[in-house]
User: What shape does this take?
Amino acid sequence: MGSQEGITLIMILTKKEKSSLVGMILGDAYLQATGKRNARLRLEHSLKQKKYLEWKISLLPLQFQGVKHIDRIHPKTRKKYSYVRAQSDASPILGKMRSLFYPYGKKQIPENLSRYLRHPLGLAVWYMDDGYYSNRSHDRSVHIYLGKVTEKEAHSAREAIEKRFLLKSTVVNKKEKGFLLYFSPKETKKFFSVIQRYVIEEMRYKLPS
Assistant: This one.
């Protein structure tokens, strides 16, 4: 069955679609197990990023259950906040991706990431989710937060981006915040030349003005 699922993944998802899915998983998406072989994709964003969420849905040939508006009360501040959520139907394709990115139940960056992150759209989605542009006069640079991954995982991310997109970065340990990838001003210019065409209007605030 494992090999059959792998074939299904390749047949159904194009390189562009697979890369966009991987960018979502590396960023803010969550893959929820729904049995031994299936999983579903959950996407959540702030209310002001609803169009971004809808755009993400449009990238994938998956069946989604619509976009839901959810209100919550913060347990500490007691302030109300709102966000939007979209959840896909369960699929063995997503189950295969969960086994890759959640081998022990916790999200991690696989060593062979470059096999899956092969199209710049995936890098663009990852950046729109977890990246930011520093506009300081002495250091105009891109950063992609990786969170609390291991140093080995951080280097897997760095190596995948360099291998696929010829973009060099440095792994930086932010201690309590985890690791991030830092792109020098020179590499930042190259970075934006790779992803700029895929950044939608609602997220262009993450590009240089």
